[in-house]
Amino acid sequence: MIRSFLSMVSLCCILLLTACIGENYDFSPPTMTVSYSYLMNHDTYEVKKASVDWEGANQEYKKTVDDFQSLGRDQEETEVNAGSEGSLILGHSDFKLEELQASLWQDNEEIKLYVNQFNEFKFPDSKGKYTLEVNLSTDSGNVQYVGNINLN
Question: What is the pTM of this model?
Fold first, then answer.
Protein backbone atom coordinates (compact mmCIF):
# COMPACT_ATOMS: atom_id res chain seq x y z
CA MET A 1 0.00 0.00 0.00
CA ILE A 2 2.79 2.44 0.94
CA ARG A 3 4.75 1.41 -2.13
CA SER A 4 1.79 2.16 -4.46
CA PHE A 5 1.23 5.51 -2.72
CA LEU A 6 4.89 6.46 -3.22
CA SER A 7 4.69 5.38 -6.85
CA MET A 8 1.65 7.64 -7.39
CA VAL A 9 3.37 10.61 -5.70
CA SER A 10 6.50 10.04 -7.82
CA LEU A 11 4.43 9.88 -11.01
CA CYS A 12 2.62 13.12 -10.12
CA CYS A 13 5.94 14.89 -9.44
CA ILE A 14 7.33 13.76 -12.79
CA LEU A 15 4.22 14.96 -14.62
CA LEU A 16 4.38 18.35 -12.89
CA LEU A 17 8.06 18.79 -13.76
CA THR A 18 7.39 17.80 -17.37
CA ALA A 19 4.66 20.43 -17.62
CA CYS A 20 7.05 23.14 -16.37
CA ILE A 21 9.62 22.28 -19.02
CA GLY A 22 7.04 22.66 -21.78
CA GLU A 23 6.04 26.24 -20.89
CA ASN A 24 6.30 28.74 -23.72
CA TYR A 25 7.52 32.26 -22.91
CA ASP A 26 7.14 35.30 -25.14
CA PHE A 27 10.16 37.61 -25.09
CA SER A 28 8.95 40.04 -27.78
CA PRO A 29 7.63 43.51 -26.90
CA PRO A 30 4.07 43.09 -25.59
CA THR A 31 0.96 44.44 -27.23
CA MET A 32 -1.05 46.93 -25.20
CA THR A 33 -4.80 47.31 -25.04
CA VAL A 34 -6.74 50.12 -23.40
CA SER A 35 -10.01 49.21 -21.71
CA TYR A 36 -12.47 52.13 -21.60
CA SER A 37 -16.15 53.04 -21.56
CA TYR A 38 -18.21 54.90 -24.13
CA LEU A 39 -21.86 55.67 -23.52
CA MET A 40 -23.03 52.61 -21.56
CA ASN A 41 -20.58 50.12 -23.09
CA HIS A 42 -17.16 48.91 -22.03
CA ASP A 43 -14.75 48.17 -24.85
CA THR A 44 -11.07 47.73 -25.64
CA TYR A 45 -8.74 49.39 -28.10
CA GLU A 46 -5.28 48.16 -29.08
CA VAL A 47 -2.77 50.98 -29.21
CA LYS A 48 0.08 50.97 -31.76
CA LYS A 49 3.73 50.44 -30.91
CA ALA A 50 5.73 53.56 -31.76
CA SER A 51 9.33 53.65 -30.53
CA VAL A 52 10.74 50.32 -29.32
CA ASP A 53 14.07 49.47 -27.66
CA TRP A 54 13.68 45.86 -26.47
CA GLU A 55 15.90 42.84 -25.96
CA GLY A 56 14.27 39.43 -26.24
CA ALA A 57 15.90 36.07 -25.57
CA ASN A 58 17.47 35.78 -29.03
CA GLN A 59 16.42 38.98 -30.76
CA GLU A 60 16.60 42.76 -30.41
CA TYR A 61 13.72 45.01 -31.39
CA LYS A 62 14.66 48.60 -32.24
CA LYS A 63 12.46 51.22 -33.86
CA THR A 64 12.39 54.99 -33.45
CA VAL A 65 9.43 57.20 -34.28
CA ASP A 66 10.31 60.89 -34.37
CA ASP A 67 6.74 62.25 -34.45
CA PHE A 68 4.61 59.99 -32.27
CA GLN A 69 1.72 62.49 -32.25
CA SER A 70 1.32 62.22 -36.04
CA LEU A 71 1.44 58.44 -35.80
CA GLY A 72 -1.21 58.60 -33.07
CA ARG A 73 -3.49 60.85 -35.12
CA ASP A 74 -3.18 58.40 -38.04
CA GLN A 75 -4.71 55.60 -35.93
CA GLU A 76 -8.41 54.81 -35.91
CA GLU A 77 -10.22 57.30 -33.65
CA THR A 78 -11.70 55.82 -30.48
CA GLU A 79 -14.52 57.60 -28.67
CA VAL A 80 -14.29 57.55 -24.88
CA ASN A 81 -16.44 59.12 -22.16
CA ALA A 82 -14.70 62.17 -20.67
CA GLY A 83 -14.01 61.55 -16.99
CA SER A 84 -14.36 57.77 -17.30
CA GLU A 85 -12.04 55.10 -15.93
CA GLY A 86 -9.56 53.30 -18.17
CA SER A 87 -7.04 50.52 -17.74
CA LEU A 88 -3.93 49.36 -19.57
CA ILE A 89 -3.73 45.65 -20.41
CA LEU A 90 -0.45 44.09 -21.51
CA GLY A 91 -0.49 41.23 -24.03
CA HIS A 92 2.00 39.30 -21.87
CA SER A 93 4.21 40.07 -18.91
CA ASP A 94 7.30 37.90 -19.31
CA PHE A 95 9.43 40.74 -17.88
CA LYS A 96 9.79 42.85 -14.75
CA LEU A 97 7.63 45.98 -14.96
CA GLU A 98 9.56 49.05 -13.84
CA GLU A 99 7.27 51.91 -14.85
CA LEU A 100 4.10 52.57 -16.82
CA GLN A 101 3.23 56.18 -17.75
CA ALA A 102 0.31 57.55 -19.74
CA SER A 103 -0.37 61.01 -21.18
CA LEU A 104 -2.85 62.70 -23.48
CA TRP A 105 -1.47 65.21 -25.97
CA GLN A 106 -3.36 67.98 -27.71
CA ASP A 107 -0.95 69.80 -30.01
CA ASN A 108 2.06 70.40 -27.73
CA GLU A 109 0.14 70.37 -24.44
CA GLU A 110 0.53 67.27 -22.30
CA ILE A 111 -1.94 66.02 -19.70
CA LYS A 112 -0.26 63.39 -17.54
CA LEU A 113 -2.54 60.60 -16.37
CA TYR A 114 -1.89 58.99 -12.99
CA VAL A 115 -1.62 55.20 -13.50
CA ASN A 116 -2.09 53.21 -10.28
CA GLN A 117 -0.56 49.85 -9.31
CA PHE A 118 -3.37 48.01 -11.11
CA ASN A 119 -2.61 49.89 -14.37
CA GLU A 120 -5.83 51.89 -14.04
CA PHE A 121 -6.26 55.60 -14.71
CA LYS A 122 -8.95 58.25 -15.22
CA PHE A 123 -9.52 60.15 -18.45
CA PRO A 124 -9.84 63.93 -17.89
CA ASP A 125 -13.19 65.72 -17.97
CA SER A 126 -12.08 68.09 -20.75
CA LYS A 127 -13.59 67.01 -24.07
CA GLY A 128 -11.63 67.00 -27.29
CA LYS A 129 -9.37 65.02 -29.60
CA TYR A 130 -6.12 63.73 -28.12
CA THR A 131 -3.13 61.55 -28.91
CA LEU A 132 -2.71 58.93 -26.21
CA GLU A 133 0.91 58.12 -25.33
CA VAL A 134 1.81 55.20 -23.07
CA ASN A 135 5.43 54.50 -22.08
CA LEU A 136 6.36 51.07 -20.75
CA SER A 137 9.73 50.60 -19.00
CA THR A 138 10.87 47.07 -18.07
CA ASP A 139 14.00 45.07 -17.43
CA SER A 140 13.80 43.97 -21.10
CA GLY A 141 13.59 47.49 -22.51
CA ASN A 142 11.16 50.28 -23.34
CA VAL A 143 8.13 50.58 -25.59
CA GLN A 144 6.14 53.68 -26.53
CA TYR A 145 2.52 53.14 -27.61
CA VAL A 146 0.17 55.66 -29.24
CA GLY A 147 -3.55 55.93 -29.94
CA ASN A 148 -6.14 58.40 -31.20
CA ILE A 149 -8.73 59.32 -28.52
CA ASN A 150 -11.82 61.51 -28.80
CA LEU A 151 -13.19 62.40 -25.34
CA ASN A 152 -16.94 63.12 -25.46
Answer: 0.82
